C-alpha cells in the first residue's frame, strides 16, 4: 500500500498547510476551471446527481451546473436527456429552466457534459424550516406554493414522480422552486414499469409496486412530504432510510398516523384531506387543486363581513324575505368574503339590513326602541347608500 510522506517542518505550521481535496472520479470537483466556468462548492446531497455552484466568467453571473457522470449506464443517460428536454420545453413559474447544455474540457483535459440552470440561493424545504424556525402559517404558505407549482405540471399532464423535501428549494426570500425532473413523465406515454425510480420513503404504493402511475401518485408523495416537514415524523415510518422492502411492506398496511395528533390546529379539513391523500387506492385521493384550495384558505383567509339583520316581527314570511336578501347579497357582494349573519342589532356589524313593510316608515321609528342602536345605525347610514327592495 502506498503511503503519503509527511513533512515535519517547523517552517510550515499545520494551519498553513493546504488541505488535500479528493476529486470524485465521476465529477469535476470544487475549484475546477473549464470552459467559461469556475466551479465552487457542491450543492447537491452526496447520493444525488452532482450539482455545483459555478461562476460564468463570460456573463459575469453565478449559475448551477448539473453534470452528467462519465461512466453512467444507458438508462441513466436517457434520464439525463429526458430531464434536459423536459426542462427546456417548460415555461412554468417555480420550475427551474435550463440556460444551455454544454461540453467542455478542464485543465487536465478531462471532458465534462453538463447543463446550466439558474442558481437558487436558499435551502431545501426541510432545512429551510429548521433554520428559519418558521411558524405554522409560514410553513403552510411555502407548501401552498409547492402545491401551486405542482398544479402547473399537472395542467400540462406531467407527473413529477419524485416529490420529497430535497427536491423543493426555498429561496432566501421564501419562494419555493421545484427541482429534479429527471424521472418526470407525461401521462399517457409508455412507462417502464419494470424498473423502480424514485425515493422509497416518499413514493406512492403504486410506484413501489411498479404499477401504472397517475397524478394521484404525486398527491400521495406531496401529502407525505407535507406531513413529514410539518411534524418531523413520517406518516408510517420510524426511519425514512429503511430498506426498500421494509418500506414497501409498511406502505401496504396503510396504517398512517393522523396529522391532527401532532398539530391539533389542523384538525378537521386539513387533517382529513391529508389522510385521504395517503389512501392506498389512487382514485380515493383528492386532486392537487383541492389541496391547494384548502392551503390557500388557511394562509389567506377571506375577510370577514358581519351582517346585522333587523325585522319587525319574527315570522316565517319575514325570515323568508330576509333569507332571499342575504342570498342576493352573497351573489353580488359576498364573493371572496366570509359572511357572518346574526338577527338583531349588533354594534360590531359592518352592514345592517332592516326589513320594513311600509316604505313611508322612517328608520328612526324602526329603531326607536333602542336609542343607542338608533344613533349608531343612523350615523353609519349617513355614510352608506340606502337600498330599497320593492
Tell me about this structure.
It is a single chain. The protein has 390 residues and is α+β, with helices and mostly antiparallel strands. It folds into 3 domains: 23-118, Phosphorylase Kinase, domain 1 (2-Layer Sandwich), CATH 3.30.200.20; 122-180 and 197-299, Transferase(Phosphotransferase) domain 1 (Transferase(Phosphotransferase), domain 1, Orthogonal Bundle), CATH 1.10.510; 304-381, 3-Layer(aba) Sandwich (Rossmann fold), CATH 3.40.50. The protein contains 12 helices and 14 strands. It has a 6-stranded antiparallel beta sheet with strand order 1-2-3-4-6-5, with helices on one face. Helix 3 packs antiparallel against helix 9 (288-299). The termini are far apart.
- Helical fraction equals 25-40%
* Lateral strand order in the biggest sheet: 1-2-3-4-6-5
The CATH architecture of the largest domain would be Orthogonal Bundle
Strand element count: 14
Rg over CA atoms, rounded to whole Å, is 30 Å
Question: How large a portion of the residues is in β-strands, by DSSP E?
Answer: 15-25%
In angstroms, what separates the terminal alpha carbons?
101 Å
Q: What structural class do you assign from the helix and strand content?
A: alpha+beta
Note poorly predicted spans. 1-22, 370-390
Named CATH topology of the largest domain:
Transferase(Phosphotransferase), domain 1
What is the H/E string?
A: EEEEHEEEHHEEEEHHHHHHEHEEHH
The number of helices is: 12
Amino acid at each position: 500500500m502506498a503511503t503519503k510522506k509527511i513533512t515535519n517542518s517547523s517552517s510550515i505550521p499545520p494551519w498553513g498547510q493546504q488541505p488535500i481535496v479528493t476529486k470524485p472520479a465521476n465529477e469535476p470537483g470544487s475549484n475546477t476551471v473549464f470552459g467559461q466556468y469556475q466551479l465552487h462548492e457542491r450543492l447537491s446531497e452526496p447520493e444525488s446527481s452532482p450539482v455545483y455552484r459555478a461562476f460564468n466568467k463570460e456573463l459575469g453571473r453565478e449559475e448551477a451546473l448539473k453534470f452528467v457522470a462519465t461512466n453512467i449506464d444507458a438508462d441513466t443517460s436517457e434520464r439525463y436527456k429526458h430531464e434536459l428536454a423536459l426542462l427546456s420545453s417548460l415555461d412554468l413559474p417555480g420550475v427551474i429552466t435550463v440556460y444551455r447544455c454544454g461540453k467542455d474540457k478542464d485543465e487536465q483535459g478531462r471532458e465534462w457534459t453538463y447543463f446550466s440552470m439558474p442558481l437558487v440561493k436558499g435551502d431545501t424545504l426541510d432545512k429551510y424550516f429548521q433554520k428559519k424556525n418558521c411558524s405554522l402559517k409560514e410553513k403552510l404558505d411555502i407548501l401552498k406554493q409547492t402545491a401551486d407549482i405542482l398544479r402547473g405540471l399537472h395542467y400540462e399532464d406531467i407527473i413529477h414522480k419524485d416529490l420529497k423535501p430535497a427536491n423543493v428549494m426555498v429561496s432566501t426570500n421564501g419562494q419555493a422552486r421545484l427541482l429534479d425532473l429527471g424521472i418526470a413523465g407525461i401521462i399517457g406515454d409508455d412507462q417502464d414499469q419494470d424498473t423502480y425510480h424514485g425515493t422509497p420513503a416518499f413514493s406512492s404504493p403504486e410506484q413501489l409496486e411498479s404499477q401504472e402511475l397517475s397524478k394521484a401518485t404525486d398527491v400521495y408523495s406531496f401529502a407525505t412530504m407535507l406531513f413529514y416537514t410539518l411534524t418531523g415524523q413520517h406518516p408510517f415510518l420510524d426511519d425514512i432510510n429503511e430498506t426498500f422492502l421494509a418500506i414497501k411492506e409498511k406502505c401496504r398496511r396503510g396504517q398512517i398516523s393522523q396529522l391532527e395528533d401532532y398539530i391539533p390546529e389542523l384538525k378537521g379539513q386539513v387533517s382529513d384531506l391529508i389522510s385521504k391523500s395517503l389512501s392506498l387506492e389512487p382514485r380515493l385521493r383528492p386532486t392537487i387543486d383541492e389541496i391547494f384550495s384548502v392551503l390557500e384558505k388557511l394562509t389567506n383567509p377571506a375577510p370577514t363581513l358581519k351582517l346585522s339583520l333587523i325585522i319587525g316581527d319574527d315570522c316565517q314570511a319575514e325570515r323568508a324575505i330576509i333569507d332571499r336578501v342575504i342570498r342576493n347579497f352573497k351573489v353580488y357582494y359576498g364573493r371572496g368574503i366570509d359572511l357572518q349573519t346574526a338577527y338583531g342589532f349588533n354594534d360590531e356589524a359592518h352592514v345592517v339590513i332592516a326589513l320594513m313593510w311600509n316604505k313611508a316608515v322612517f328608520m328612526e321609528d324602526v329603531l326607536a326602541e333602542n336609542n343607542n342602536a338608533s344613533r349608531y345605525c343612523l350615523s353609519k347610514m349617513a355614510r352608506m347608500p340606502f337600498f330599497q327592495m320593492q
